[in-house]
Amino acid sequence: MSGKRPPTPDLIPNPFIKKRNLEWTLSPPQATLSTTPSETSLSPTESPPTTAAIESGSAQVDDHLSHFSTRLAGYIAPSSPSPPLSISSYASLYTAAAGNSRGAHFVIHQHDHPIAGTHYDLRLQINETSSASWAIMYGLPGDPNSVRLNRNATETRVHCLWNHLIETASPVTGSLLIWDTGSYTVLPRKSKHAPSSDPSSQTSSPPSSPAYQSAVTPPSSTPQTLLHAAFQNRKIRLRLHGSRLPDSYVINLRLTKYEDAVGRARGARTPRTRRRRPRGGIPQPQPETSDEEDEGDEAIDDGEDVPLSVGGTTPGENLSSMEREIRELEDEHVRLTNAYPGAENTIGSIHQRRWYLSLDRRACGFVEKRTNGRLAWEVDESRYGEVDGGERAREKAGLRTSTGAEYSGDGSDRFRFPFYVRGADHERSVVTGRRGADILEDEGVKNFVPRKGWKPVLN
């Protein structure tokens, strides 16, 4: 500062400060931003906040869609094959859902975390601003004859809906890419006590048709209310309309009474504090209580669901005692509500309850047949017709045999059954076409050490 200025109007007089010192003012830091470079006039020395800072809450933007759509568009190389989902479609999907009580947006993030390892986060919109989330270790199943058709889906924190737009990376949380995104439909579940249908009788509308859906679903119901009701019943049947998944892709999410009770008990416990070694002596053994958690029974924690600005500090970060106290209070609020700041847990989500996710093979177009004395799930030819041997109908329905994992940009990018999720070294973003390593490089992350030992389910 080289000179004196008039007193700052917003400065509150302090009786302990000399009057002559009140004539000095401070310039605001140049690194504080609230919008993207395209939304405001920035000086050449200013730079936009990183995606990791926005995700953690340490930086804010006014328009998440504009910020991330502009940023992701800059990473699509003109010489590479076009990704399955264009930036305009990516933006339109979100615009139609955000702030809409009838919105049904979903995203599947591939998250390569250094501690939790590679997993896939399924997020479903539950209200105008928030989404419930499940962490799936091996990704969504795509082979009806897989020996591991069921997958553990661990319930995690409720996220803000704008998290659906993010591709990011940091040394602490690893890489995060959009594996698929689109909209979902909650399908009715048939009760096991319902009478079986007569094969000889012809129904006016098949169960998957809009006419059937409108007949069994009240007109006032929305995807969010249907999801809420299914969530409370612990049985969710979903059809995912994505850009990568087959056209007819239906999954079941199921929470058993036992896992529900275990999850609620775990969520009600008080977090343990780290015991300190007493000075000048050997630590005395502490008696175990009912509040102690069994480390071996702990569910897989989604590392991405621990923002850098909540609960603890990042490596090399120096915080004052007041800042640490504020973060501890934020962490307590997040733990009690199971929702990150800005999100609202209107569905009753509980952290780390273990659900079970499986492929609904019949709804996806398969029937069980015996071939050479062995039972296997095969394409239901009667469902898709016999035109051209059924090949054209099967291809339209996404039932042509393929291994998935790659796209060519020639219009045949949608997965066909069976497909396999092959992990961070192979899978690409549905929006930018990047792999996890590309995102790490684009975000300037150095010396990232991934967790070893992860293997895809290929049988």
TrEMBL record:
Residue stretches of biased makeup (Basic residues)? 266-279
Where does the DNA ligase D 3'-phosphoesterase domain start and stop, copy by copy? 109-251
Q: Where is the composition biased (Acidic residues)?
A: 289-305
Q: What is the superkingdom listed in this entry's lineage?
A: Eukaryota
Polar residues composition bias: residue spans? 211-223, 311-320
Q: What is this protein called?
A: DNA ligase D 3'-phosphoesterase domain-containing protein
State the organism's lineage.
Eukaryota, Fungi, Dikarya, Ascomycota, Pezizomycotina
Task: Return any one Pfam family short name.
Answer: LigD_N
Which species does this protein come from? Cylindrodendrum hubeiense
Q: Disordered: where is this region?
A: 27-53, 189-223, 262-320
Q: Per the record, where are the segments of Low complexity compositional bias?
A: 32-51, 196-206
Q: Which InterPro entries match?
A: LigD_PE_domain
